Amino acid sequence: MAKIKREDVIEEALELLKEGGLEVITTRRLAQRLGVESASLYWHVKDKATLLGEMASTIIARYHTIKTPHDTEQWEKWFIDHAYSFRNALLAYPDGAMLHAGSIPTFNDLVQLAPKTEYLVQAGFSEREAQMALLTMGQFTLGSVMEEQTRNKRRILKSSPMEKVKESQRDADIDTLTSNVMNTIENEAENAFEFGIQLIIKGLKK
């Protein structure tokens, strides 16, 4: 039987995620890939929830690497860059947003919030405002990416809302407004994300 380390379990789980999304990640399949018995995985991760949390934390540590600058006058640019960095990390793997949303934050995840909060406090926000700004940005980004990744799955399955609208109105013309709205939903995820982040910035500046 193969000898494995905790890092081996997490990396192999991430490979599974890349290949088939969250649906294919089971302890049985993971154990088979690693050449061990399912029970031996629990020497390294106590349960599946812990595994998913470690996977999410690894993705964030690997791809969401933006640092807080010294110049607090640049807080707006940093806030936008921070949001995009988080977005890109979630998009790095299929179901990245769903994984992050359903995982338990690790201690390291929570530690990373302190310097970001302190940076916004130094920029003139109260501690409460800084915390809520980061929470709002995080939840908006998470929801935005979750929608985007779900739409990508629908495209693969050829079951997008636009196709359903066309099917339901096969014998009638789709009005221009409906068509434009559906096109925006299906094809302008990044533009919508940018628009939303700018709205958050405007709210913070008031």
From TrEMBL:
Q: Which InterPro entries match?
A: DNA-bd_HTH_TetR-type_CS, Homeodomain-like_sf, HTH_TetR, Repressor_TetR_C, Tet_transcr_reg_TetR, Tet_transcr_reg_TetR-rel_C_sf
- Upper lineage: Bacteria, Bacillati, Bacillota, Bacilli, Bacillales
The alphabetized UniProt keywords are: DNA-binding, Repressor, Transcription, Transcription regulation
**Which stretches hold the DNA-binding feature?**
26-45
Task: Kindly give the Pfam families that the UniProt entry links to this protein.
Answer: TetR_C_1, TetR_N
Q: Name one GO molecular function term.
A: DNA binding
Q: What highest taxon heads this organism's lineage?
A: Bacteria
Q: What sequence ranges are listed for the domain HTH tetR-type?
A: 3-63
Listed PROSITE patterns: HTH_TETR_1 (PS01081), HTH_TETR_2 (PS50977)
Q: Name one GO biological process term.
A: negative regulation of DNA-templated transcription
What this protein is called in its record is TetR family transcriptional regulator
